[in-house]
Amino acid sequence: MENQPHSQAAAAWQPGRPAEDGVDLVEIFYLLWGQGRQILACLAAGALLALCGTRLLVTPLYQAVSSIYIVSASNNSVVNLSDLQIGSQLTADYQELMRSRPLLEDVIRRLELDTTPQRLARQIRITNAANTRILKVTVTSPDPQMAARIANQLVDLARVYLPEVMETDQPNLVETAVAPQWPSSPSYAFNGALGGLAGAVLCCGVLLCRRLLNDTFVTPEEVAGSLGLQPLATIPEAQPEGGAGRPGRTLPRWRKDQS
Q1: Could you tell me which of 94, 189, 190, 75 has the C-alpha nearest to residue 133?
Q2: Residue 241 CA to its chain's centroid (Å)
Q3: What is the pTM of this model?
Q4: Are 60 and 183 in contact (CB under 8 A)?
Q5: Do the Cβ atoms of 184 and 61 come closer than 8 Å?
Q6: Do residues 158 and 96 make contact, with C-beta atoms less than 8 angstroms apart?
């Protein structure tokens, strides 16, 4: 009969958490707050690793942009409303035809590129701003000079080849592509921030797992909170004769499965 309250409390207890209240969010907050330096160190380490990995393993890519203006004038006269509507319809056709295989093969042959039309098409993005007839041809390449050359060559050939296919007027050149000075990707700031966040989250996860899997009592409050038993006294850790011990620790730690 004397051991009945103790056995009931032990049966209701779950390892690593209080018997009644579950995980204490306030306790978790103070646990992470107390390990703030360690979390910040993992954040800095994650950001540094992400930056180094991006620098060493990721190839920077450059984007060159050229643009043309789709115009359709009837009988070489001033552009009217009907011509504007026709030009808007032609814009969608130009977007598709500028990625056609014959045109890309001609670009590859003229620039002597070691690639295929399918691979070159994946490097090209053609966009049309809303409510305009301006097409922007964006070419992505690891070589900034080559990106500009491909964009300009594609636009030059499209201005001659596509009007013949569509039997329309030649589009006007808005701007030629120039070799970019800075890469468009990867983003070192984004990758560094993502790596730092991953490092901090990983550190917090390890700290929480260690706390939840810990099966020892460290303070008398944990004994009272988990088992419902109030300790009568604590025994301080004995110091050696030289007095080099560490005061303030209890000896030994109680194991929850042996209490």
Answers
A1: 94
A2: 58
A3: 0.62
A4: yes
A5: yes
A6: no
198-214 per-position pLDDT tens digit = 999 999 999 988 888 87
Apex CA 37: angle with CA 36 and CA 41, to 5°?
115
- Report how far apart, in Å, the C-alpha atoms of 56 and of each of 60, 187, 227 are: 10, 14, 54
Whether the Cβ atoms of residue 15 and residue 226 lie closer than 8 Å to each other:
no
Structure tokens belonging to residue 178: 């120039």
Length of the chain as a residue count:
259
Look at residues 210, 254, 250 and name the one whose alpha carbon lies nearest to residue 229.
254
- pLDDT in the model for residue 87: 52
Residues 106, 150: Cα–Cα separation, whole Å: 11
Report the distance separating Cα 234 and Cα 236, nearest Å.
6
* Beta partners for residue 141, in sequence order: 62
Structure tokens given for 132:
């305009």
